[in-house]
Specification:
It contains 29 helices and 2 strands. The chain has helices at residues 29-46, 59-62, 74-82, 97-109, 116-142, 145-157, 162-165, 171-191, 195-213, 222-234, 243-256, 263-279, 298-317, 340-362, 368-379, 403-426, 430-458, 462-472, 477-494, 499-520, 533-551, 555-589, 603-615, 619-632, 638-649, 653-666, 671-683, 705-724, 728-742; strands at residues 691-694, 697-700. It has a two-stranded antiparallel sheet with strand order 1-2. The longest helix has 35 residues, at 555-589.
Length: 752
Amino acid sequence: MLPPSTPSPPSDTMAQTAPAAALPSRTRGWQLWAAVLALGLLTLLAYSNSFSAGLTLDNGVVIGDDPRIRAWNADNLHLILTHNYWWPMFESDLYRPLTTLSYLVNYAVLGNQHNPAGYHVVNILLHWANVILVLIIVHRLAKRLDLAALAAAVFAVHPVNIESVTNIVGRADLLATLSILLGSWCYMRAAESSGWKKIVWLTGMALNALWGIFAKESALMICVFVFFYDLVWRWPHLTGENFLKRLGQAAWEFGVKGYVALAPALAAIWAVRHWITFNSPVFGQIFVDNPISQPDSWLAGKLTAIKVIGRYLKLLVWPHQLSSDYSYNQIPLYGQPGHALENIEAWVALAVVVGLIGLAIGMWRTQPLFTWGVCLFFSMQVLTANLFFPIGSIMGERFLYLPSVGFAVVAALALDRLTRECVRQLGLAERGRIWLASGLALLILSALSARSYLRNLDWRDDLTLWRSTVQNAPNSFKSYKGYSNGIWDIALDNYPHNPAKLEENLNHAIALSETGLRVLDSVPLPISKQDNTLYQDLGTFYRIKGDFLRDRGQLDEARSFYEKSLAVLRRAEAVDHWVNDTSHQSALARGRPENDIPVVGNYRVYINLESTYERLGDWDNAEKSSAHVMLLIPTQPIGYRLRGTDLFNRGQVRLAAIQMLEAGLLDNGDATAWQALASCYQVMGLPPETLRQDGPNHVLDINNPAVRQDVNSACVGLVQELLDANDHEDAVAVRDRFIKNFQVPAELFPKF
């Protein structure tokens, strides 16, 4: 704990604060630098075991599967700038090119590739930068280095921030917060400047706001941040004799001479949201991820959101039970039968929220730093609290990263008040107050750091994380889904040739998935509120269990599991069709042309359906499922290969050959497709030299009339599949390639 840098305020009040001004004269430069270094060491200690945390949760998708970050080149930069954050894994209405660009730097420029340590280093450095900004901002407002250092330290090591720091894809939160804090610092300096200096500082704010929104949409909260700075610190010093004149002064001083610099960022976020919303198939939020998106009533939604804010406060004060997921039905909607205590909790939370806001208003003039901290905590949740509009999740600790700054300020003030009260009661001298304050601060920071250290262990891999989630969020269906997948993935990685161990883990995964299903089915949900990913996983597990039984000769038991697999996968299929239909109608309502609307869906559902139908010998439905895979991912060979197999087993060998050929045309290295094509040609009586291998490539004898016809049919069919999926860009590129490389007559292709 650093010694105070200014004389102590009266012992019967909290730390007195004044409007922002230049750095206090008694704060020497070395003291500030010492605080910066001390906070860096404290941060490093709390996160010292985070470097080995793996690519858990979304990290495996965003970093492990995104082809745009594999190499620094113009093509990848273009893809990053022109596609959504989750491309190409699935469609999304999120656009965060700067965050994706930072992963590209890690992966390709720094050479980290799939090694998570380098990504963690960048995250911790970004977090430290935010901690430093909290230090200098609070120092400027409080005029006390000890108070600012304590607030920054609480922010640095608080365990709720693990999800934004140790979780690599939490980098979006780190970057957005950096832009908000740095931009707001520029605004504070601009408010104290004039002439060209004011213009320079406002330009700095404008640039920070502009780049921030391309890291994460929440960077827009800089508007709210600077507004509450003005409201708390500058409004009381306006000289107008009545409210209207002061309002006019504020409009000129704050708005025209300040907020106008945010106009470019506001225009950019509007343009981006308009563009991506128009083109995205996303039509709304998923109920099981955020039940507030479809509450039974307006009151139920608002009180549930207030209850979540109360839980955030509880986590900040006592961060014991931390979870990476709070999906359905961990936080029941207000008014849901059988949850009387939860309903009472919502009203208690409302009373606490109203009480804190009332206290902040009452202490506005006497304790502006307290008021500012409370305003910061609540206002920085405007975009994530589900009070004004629903978002993708009902609750997430990552949403507390920036609001926790406000909590840290209030916590530092509370500790300061506590120590001064103890000094007054015990009659201690100033030196005694310093020792007492330092001791209490050290105790609190040690406890928070220890909890953060332990929480980092949960993020070691998917298995440890989901095990912790099941323990701390036992009513979330997704916790069981994630844990079951973690158990099965661990078995596949470690026991690929140990059937007994594989089946043991499979049984555990099935039991967990069935528990998740019971959570989903605890209250009958309409199809619009259901989730198909758990159905898909459980259907897969049932089919694999059937395979184990079949291989042991237990055919009746195996068929029973295949039928269970089919039943749950059919539920997934029904939800998937509803999603596509609703997405289509939503796109039409936004004015998107019919032939420009893509078919959307979870292609894995249909891959698993095809496999289950195959086990049951239902080749007709297997073919329908594989055909839908082709429609959903027309540029990937798997759907064509599966459909070729289904057609072959239906006796349609020629059509099967064409489908296998389409798969090979999409990926010349797909050995399975070429081998299947060779089998088709063998059945058809074509000579072996019709298809030969030349190194890694496969070469067709296109001089053979039958092969020539098949090549033409496959090329034309592939372009038609792309058109059916409304993928016109790829259809043009593929058509032109086939005309050039295979001399397919242009007139054979469909007109578009």
